[in-house]
Amino acid sequence: MVLQIQVPDGATLAALEPLIPTLLAYVLSFVYVGIYWNNHHHLLQASSRISGSVLWANLHLLFWLSLLPFGTRWMDDYYTQPLPSAAYGVVLLGAAVAYWLLQRRIIAAEGDSSALKQMLAGDWKGKLSPVLYLLGIGLSFVQVHLAQATYALVALLWLIPDRRIERRIG
């Protein structure tokens, strides 16, 4: 993900100030990519069977993640405006739904005895995240920075890795 982060116009901390929104947007999106990368790796590592519908669900997730640079750049360019912030939230919500669908397709491919189904029981972060994304989307039209803080909060929740799958496959 490249956002064309410009070099500051000077060698002082004050010269960095105009770049703060860009740097924050980049860091947030980079963290999200890392979270999905790690969880996707664990998810597929725990899977015992991959079907055609799993491949399509995986592609669906990739589609939403491919929109992250666009959403990040738009939110960065207009970080005080509601629509770009809401659009960023829609991309995050789309990725969360796509990841959930991928989990469901893997479980369906594995059948009734799916070990993954047991590993994902009690997935409170997976259930809470879309609710917070919807809250952030709505907050975008009330207070943009609260919306962006909500997106950051979800990322912070996921920075603590989901150890359920790792414990089972490790």
TrEMBL record:
Membrane topology per record: Multi-pass membrane protein
Chain segments annotated as transmembrane: 20-38, 50-71, 83-102, 131-160
Location (main, coarse): membrane
Keyword vocabulary terms for this entry: Ion channel, Ion transport, Membrane, Potassium, Potassium channel, Potassium transport, Transmembrane, Transmembrane helix, Transport
Highest taxon, organism lineage: Bacteria
Residue ranges that the Swiss-Prot or TrEMBL entry lists as coiled coil: none
Entry annotated with the keyword Ion transport: yes
Reaction catalysis annotation: K(+)(in) = K(+)(out)
Subcellular location: Membrane
Family the UniProt entry places it in: Belongs to the TMEM175 family.
Name the record gives this protein: DUF1211 domain-containing protein
Lineage of producing organism: Bacteria, Pseudomonadati, Pseudomonadota, Gammaproteobacteria, Lysobacterales
